[in-house]
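Quick one:
INPUT:
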């Protein structure tokens, strides 16, 4: 089953494929431009606009969530939120990410599929809501991007990675390092209260 010969398709998200309505996008672009914020490597994912009355004064707030891109590829983790009050940028929630890692993959899609199922089988041995055999004939999707590794006292480091999951489903999901096919993270979507 873990031979990598089954269906896996590469998917890609463009920074121009904003996930908010056109009218919201126009407002966001205007706010970014009038505040001198570069939006060339951002894909808008959420937009919240509200008026709040405080001490008899109405303040207009806009919060724009965005996915970040580098070298044309998404950062698979590390979404950020830009906050504006009355048209002025007030704060950034999250960390601006950059990378110098080459965006050209070395792993084949078959290797990525095989790594996914090898980890799925190991994960399943410690109890899992899903069973690997139920997915062996299903197609997987794989998106290439950057995963930011963090740990202890070390500086964050970006690696080229694949985000893999079943087509048309969120779980089980894995992040796989492109350079050596090691699993960065695997999750079946089920949170448990006790140890696994």
């Amino acid at each position: 089953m873990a031979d990598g010969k089954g269906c896996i398709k590469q998917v890609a998200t463009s920074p121009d494929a904003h996930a908010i309505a056109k009218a919201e996008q126009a407002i966001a672009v205007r706010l970014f431009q009038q505040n001198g914020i570069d939006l060339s490597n951002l894909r808008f994912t959420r937009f919240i606009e509200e008026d709040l009355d405080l001490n008899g004064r109405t303040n207009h707030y806009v919060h724009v969530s965005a996915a970040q891109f580098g070298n044309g590829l998404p950062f698979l983790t590390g979404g950020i939120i830009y906050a504006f009050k009355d048209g002025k940028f007030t704060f950034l929630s999250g960390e601006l990410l950059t990378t110098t890692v080459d965006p050209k993959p070395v792993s084949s899609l078959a290797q990525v599929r095989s790594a996914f199922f090898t980890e799925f089988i190991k994960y399943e041995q410690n109890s899992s809501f899903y069973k690997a055999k139920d997915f062996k004939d299903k197609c997987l999707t794989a998106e290439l991007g950057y995963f930011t590794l963090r740990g202890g006292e070390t500086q964050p480091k970006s690696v080229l990675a694949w985000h893999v999951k079943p087509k048309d489903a969120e779980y089980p999901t894995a992040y796989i390092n492109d350079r050596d096919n090691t699993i960065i993270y695997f999750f079946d979507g089920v949170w448990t209260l006790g140890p696994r």
